[in-house]
What we know:
With 195 residues, this protein is an alpha+beta fold. It has helices at 5-44, 163-194; strands at residues 65-75, 77-82, 88-98, 104-112, 119-133, 136-141. The chain folds into two domains: 5-35 and 161-194; 64-154, no CATH class. A five-stranded mixed β-barrel has the order 1-3-4-6-5.
Amino acid sequence: MRIPIIPTIIVACAIAVMVALGFWQLSRMGEKEALLARYAQAEQMKDDAPLMGKALERPLFYFRHTTLGCQGSGMTEPRAGANTEGEIGWAHWAKCTADVDRITVSVNVGWSKEPAAVPYALSQVVGTIAPDGPDGARVVADEPAPGLQGSAKPDPRNIPNNHLAYAGQWFFFALTALVIYILALRRRATRATDE
């Protein structure tokens, strides 16, 4: 039986790509572990960190404590969130403009069971820098606004490191493609001998 050259090359290339993606995910796993270790260290630092204006610089300060002048007032924007006890409800987000970098900062000013917006007025924010969200820089305030409970603090242990599972999936896909191709070749050989 002659092995078809073009389909074999296509399948071999596909398998090679899947295996390469699996190894890439394994290398990403190590990078993520290092990042999570850095975040855990940052969480333990006692000195306040600046909230940098450039998005590329802010990850260096995630999970650190900060104090910044930040002016803003209005009504909060309730979004799903948890309180310090882990109870699910509504985190109340406010916006302010940082005095130094003039960036807009989203501040979690507290938590409630009800989704009703509450008024806020900010001049200084004291809290923990959270990973950037869709609105950019974020801080979870240490003290809740009047009438609200404390929101859950950002925790680096809540960031998953799924890269080992992703690597396993790519290796499984490569093995599956190989087995299917071998079965297809066998079926082709059986058909050829029957004729």
